[in-house]
Structure formats: structure tokens, C-alpha cells
């Protein structure tokens, strides 16, 4: 798979190889409620409702985040890798005029 922007190759590789470029969606039910300030770095779009949380986790932060969850007693866990659409959209930003611009993504 190759992602092209403005006639240039932005990135290429298999779907598995490109998954490191974006975040994994995680939903967890824990044994006890948590506070947003307790969550480790690399966690984004955090939504906490009591002991249930949903967020996006950087690939590089996943191991630490899973240890953090385990320390709080995981009752239920769903983890979903990025979709092809999410990988593609991660490479683009919208300019103020509404046009798209390739994002700089470092591996």
C-alpha cells in the first residue's frame, strides 16, 4: 500500500507495517474508578465514566498503558488496531481554507 499526496509518496508498506503510525483504540472496564490525571503519557481522546474508559493509545505507549490498566484490575478489555481509513487520515491535516495537506509522520 502506498499513500500519495500532491503526487509524492508519503509512506508505503503493508497494512501491518503502517499500523505503527497511528493509535490503537482501547475500551476498558476496571475494578475501580480512575481519574484523568492518573493516566500515563501517550493516551489521547480519553473518556472516563466511573470505572469505564475509552481512549486512543500511541503504539509506543501501549505496553506501559496495559501495565497501568492491569494494576487497576481489568474486568473487561477491548483493543482495536487502527483501520485502513485511520491510517490514511493520520497522514492528512485540514488547512484553514478546507484543503488537505500531508502530515509529517515520523516512524
Terminal-residue CA separation: 16 Å
Query: What amount of the residues lies in strands?
Result: 35-45%
Average pLDDT? 78
| Helical content band | 10-25%
Compile the SSE list and pairings:
Blueprint: E1 2-5, E2 8-12, H1 15-18, E3 23-30, E4 43-49, E5 52-58, H2 62-71, E6 74-80, H3 84-90, E7 92-94, E8 100-102
Give a nutshell description of this structure.
The protein has 107 residues and is of the alpha+beta class. The protein has three helices and eight strands.
Detailed description of the structure:
The chain has 107 residues and is an alpha+beta fold. It folds into two domains: 1-21 and 82-107, no CATH class; 23-81, Alpha-Beta Plaits. 20% of the residues lie in helices and 41% in strands. The protein is built from three helices and eight strands, in the order E-E-H-E-E-E-H-E-H-E-E. It has helices at 15-18, 62-71, 84-90, and strands at residues 2-5, 8-12, 23-30, 43-49, 52-58, 74-80, 92-94, 100-102. The strands form three sheets. Strands 4-5-3-6 form a four-stranded antiparallel β-sheet, covered by helices on one side. The two termini are 16 Å apart. The relative contact order is 0.24. The model is unreliable at 93-107 (pLDDT under 50).
Amino acid at each position: 500500500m502506498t499513500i500519495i499526496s500532491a503526487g509524492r509518496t508519503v509512506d508505503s508498506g503493508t497494512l501491518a507495517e503502517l499500523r505503527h503510525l497511528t493509535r490503537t483504540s482501547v475500551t476498558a472496564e476496571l475494578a475501580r474508578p480512575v481519574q484523568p490525571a492518573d493516566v500515563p503519557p501517550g493516551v489521547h481522546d480519553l473518556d472516563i465514566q466511573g470505572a469505564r474508559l475509552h481512549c486512543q493509545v500511541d503504539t509506543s505507549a501501549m505496553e506501559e498503558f496495559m501495565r497501568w490498566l492491569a494494576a487497576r484490575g481489568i474486568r473487561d478489555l477491548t483493543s482495536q488496531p487502527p483501520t485502513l481509513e485511520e491510517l490514511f487520515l493520520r497522514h492528512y491535516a485540514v488547512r484553514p481554507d478546507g484543503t488537505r495537506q500531508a502530515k509529517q509522520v515520523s516512524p
